[in-house]
Amino acid sequence: MSARREFLVGLGAAILWPLAARAQQKRVPVIGYLSGGPPGPSSLAMFRQGLSETGYVEGQNVTIEYRLEDHYDRLPAMASDLVGRKVDLIVAAGALPVALAAKSATSTIPIIFPSLSDPVENGLVASLARPGGNITGFSPFQFELMPKRLELLTELVPQARVIALLVNPTDPRTERLIRDVQEAARAKGVQLPILKAGSESEIDAAFTTLVQLHAGALLVFPDPFFYVRGKQQLVALASRHAVPALYAWRDFAISGGLISYGASIPGLFREAGIYAGRILKGEKPADLPVQQPTRFELVINLKTAKALGLSVPQALLARADEVIE
Known about the structure:
Blueprint lengths: L2 H22 L5 E6 L5 H13 L9 E6 L6 H10 L4 E5 L2 H10 L5 E3 L21 E3 L8 H11 L6 E5 L6 H15 L5 E3 L3 H13 L4 E4 L3 H5 L2 H10 L4 E3 L2 H5 L4 E4 L2 H16 L16 E5 H6 L6 H6 L2 E3 L1
Parallel strand pairs: 1-2, 1-3, 3-4, 4-5, 6-7, 6-8, 8-9, 9-10, 11-12
Antiparallel strand pairs: 10-11
């Protein structure tokens, strides 16, 4: 072979080898993150942590496409957009309408809900143990704990004969939850006026009504809207009006709220990240059971209690998982 021919053959191989190597490189998987509003920073960080525990790091070997929308009527279009982009997995973070929008958009792309109550009753999965189909996730017992939360509030503020319940009227589970808490309130002999808020301005109006009702305490509905959009506003208004309030999320007590009781939502997002990694590696949502928490956190902010002039019973302090002083 002539020197010129050898040179051309070598040049061709040098050009073709990188092209072949790139063609053989595995495509970076894409996760669609559909959320009913801006994601909580701690929850999103824990989701990424769970992913990393399975070997996936955002920006390195996995891409996350975010679709954040707090107007529920726009969620179906957002979900359809993710499906059109052929994502490998959809995370449906937030309230029930987010998961329903994802479910309506695809029956083949895997879907994970990190924190959603009543997935069987709402038709998302066939059963907790055997979800079937393309959906699985985590259910935090948020609504089932509402009577217990009322009980804790009456223990902390025994003199309160009127305890207001703040709900989001746009959540489809609101009416059932109201009935459950009303039954618990009757058993405790307290009045339970219902305050409704689905926007920041309505939260302000709800507190005006709460003061007019001379409510001695406030119980906050565990709706994602209150967690994502209303945390600072709710804690600030409860402080300004000197109203003892109980929340479902630890973040609220950390931010100055009086007391919280519920599952660790960031912890569930971490587990969802692990599920996402397992699915990206080939496991099927139908084979991954819907998991529920086995323990719940009681957090009491003593600094806030002192500011409200409350003396926290020792029996309640003894049961607390965390006391903020």
